[in-house]
From TrEMBL:
This is Dihydroxyacetone kinase. Substrate binds at G51, G52, G53, H54, K102, D107. It comes from Rhodotorula paludigena. It comes from the Eukaryota. Pathway: Polyol metabolism; glycerol fermentation; glycerone phosphate from glycerol (oxidative route): step 2/2. Keywords: ATP-binding, Flavoprotein, FMN, Glycerol metabolism, Kinase, Nucleotide-binding, Oxidoreductase, Transferase. Residues 8-360 form the DhaK domain. The active site is at H220. The keyword rRNA processing does not apply. GO terms for molecular function: ATP binding; glycerone kinase activity; nitronate monooxygenase activity; triokinase activity. The lineage of its organism: Eukaryota, Fungi, Dikarya, Basidiomycota, Pucciniomycotina. GO terms for cellular component: cytosol.
Amino acid sequence: MGKHILNTPKTAIIDSLSGLTFLNPATEVYDSTLLLRSPAKDRVHLVCGGGGGHEPAHAAFVGEGMLSAAVSGQVFASPNAGQVEKALDKLSLAKGSLIIVKNYTGDVLQFGLAKERWSATHLNDNSVRMVVVGDDVAVPRSQGALTGRRGLAGTVLTYKLAGALAAQGASIDEVEHVAKIVAERCGTIGMGLEHCHVPGTEKGEAYLKDDEAEIGMGIHNEPGIRKVSPIPSAAKLVDEFLTTITSTTDDERSYVPFKNDGQDEVILMVNNLGGLPELELGIVAKEAADWLARKKITVKRAVAGSFMTSLNLPGFSLTLLLLPREPVALPATSSATSALKFDSSLLVDLFDAPTDAPAWKWTFKGEPEMKVLKEGDENKVGKKQEKAGEEVKGPKPTDSKLFISALEAGLKALVAAEPEITRYDTIAGDGDAGLTLKAGAQGILDVIAQNGIPDDDVVAAMVAISAIVEKEMGGTSGGLYAIGLSGLSKGLLDAAKEKSSDTAGKEVWARALELALNTLYNYTRARPPSRTLVDPLSSFILTFSASPSDGLTHAFKAAHEAAEATRDLDAKAGRAAYVDQEKIREAAVPDAGAWGVWTLLQGIQKIIGAIETKLTQALGIKRPIVQGGMMWVGLPKLVAAVSNAGGLGILTGLTAGSPEGLRKSIREVRSLTDKPFAVNLTFLPSISPPPYEEYAKVIVEEKVKIAETAGGPAAIPIIKYLKSKGLIVIHKCTAVRHAQAAEKVGVDFLSIDGFECAGHPGEDDVGGLLLLALAARKLKTPYIASGGIGDGRGLAAAISLGAEGVNCGTVFMATTESYIHDNIKKAMVEASELDTTHIFRSLRNSARVFKNKIATEVVAKERRPGGVEFPELAPLVSGARGKKVYDEGDPDAGVWSSSGVLGLIDDIPSCAELLERMERDAEKILVEGATKVKRESKL
């Protein structure tokens, strides 16, 4: 039925709680929590709660001898941890408090988060305990292995008996022990004739046919274990239910240790799920009594009525509490002692103990009085205990702007993805995931817009974000995110201390995330693969923590793959675990929570992750940085080092001396790396050209996937051959018009070499800045920039000009893996951008080389009247003399290529250090550049 008596759906919970204070003036309402107005100071207090819609649970059980506080969320939505903390603040915790919650993920997370925060911020961190009740026997062990048994009406029995003991002044250990005994020995199963209707939602088509019933329904409209038609008689339903609860042979559902030997003793609860007529509830009670008598199970106490409902769901549940035959001792791990005998007599006495909770026994006979507290009424709410210890300053981010920008990018991605995530959750969940994530993300973005998130302390930032998430999101995902963020806050402190660092670098973040995941695992049984948000989150964290220095890109990839993989998984945790798994598989949609995590990470990746371009995607490399082919320098060790560092190393083919020499070099590279690399073939005018076809054949035979080519028309047949064999071809050009010609041949990428380039930059004398801008206008094929690029600024500039990456040479010569003599590397460090010159200008074959004695002599000969012919220069510029420079370390032994990048070389790093530095600096520049763009009018 879709009809309700209320004011508005939004105010339904607070209106109902206010009505309870009128009926029971011993209570008061604060922040959707019903509390005892004057809680005793000499006893343990019980706190329960959960989503609304289960009335009278839990608010109507607040009273002397039962609950001291009941915290309510909106209908079927868990309250947030802040509400729970306020309830704890209001209570006197001299003897401690026991939180009792139903085993639904959102409740466990939110109440657990409150408990953890309480323990972390109060002097007595053992003053709050928590017992989770899971008494459902309908869901088989195999289906609920991670999720566990749902918490149903047995929850009420748990806090009735525990509350009675607390009222007698028992210790927190004794009260907790009784609660655990009851929770562990309860079994409940229910049924429904139709789903309930949630106020404020449209009335849909009937879920069940007129002659259908559903067995094993939950209390949130979760589907049961099966539908039956026609509807069985009350006797048959009771027989099935009690047989299931008392079974000793059903491996999937024998949760309660019955012996069925004629000596079992129980407490029976017959519970109306909300819409069953009292006439029919009486029939169920009668049938239950008859069945138990026939089975010689002694009913020590029985109660029937509405205890744990599901709004107006027409149905009932049966609960049996199996009383222990022998006293149940306190756990061996407990240091507490007790004079109590925890046996069946004690439990029965506690059941009989009086309580003035209205839903259990309406005993109050005073004049009604409405008591509703307002936010900020400190006299009524009570003051929080002082926090233990002083506030601790957390580590600062490595880059404040980058930190906030990455956070914003991830959150904006979540907001934009709401429709997609909602669609996934509508198919395989309860449909609220997208809006819940959007609410949390938008809440954080709003605070960021007001500069409300600290950018100089990552711990303070995570604490602030956690508070926003808790307030704005609620529910299961909100609880998971809030607990995870709280765990991350502490993890960052611990990791920074462990690493002796006041900065949150990759090592600190990786360790902190690992610690946060462990904290999260305390509150969810989900472990990958589980078709939950844990899948991508765990994949990301474990991959990143395994290799913090260079594992970030792999971590993002692992998270994406894990999120995608949920399309093919059965749900093992969360409410989706109770949904028809076959329908989920047919829909082939990912888990909404998992997709939300990936969406957040994907947004962050675009800011802090490796710079992703068409080049990195096509080549399968981590960083858009290519080590171009260099005569004598592009040898296996350097090539492998560049590829291992995430770039593209290129083996200079002709340096090998012969096709078979190239084959040997390729195999040597393969022995040093399993990452992508390429082979360069440069086609130069020659009377006796090298056997290019044979070189190309070796490249194909050795299954190299990428080739770099350079040269004029002679390169065309080889390019076509390589393309026909499936290779990706990068072709180097010194002019846009040459690049346009190469486009027609079908190359995959173009390398645009500007005038700053080492080696042969062409004769147009056009600098890279203009050349790249022209390429962006005129080329359709993706291109990379080359010439004068040696740091992150050059990489950022190239990307800003439309390039998909950069092609570098000189900067790789001055790395630890470059074979050239250390004297030459030192000379490069000491040189400046002015220490290069062009030779062969007069011969129209310009080459930029290091300015040494030989180069200066060549230039002088070219500038003399009448010029010079190449034969006169040949002895000076021979390749053998150039190689001697690299081999022996004499900078003046011959001519050797170098670009003006010399002015940017300050050290001799490893290839890994160089590439990481370039990428990090480029990311920072690109982010800062983006933040400088203001859309507001300056007028």
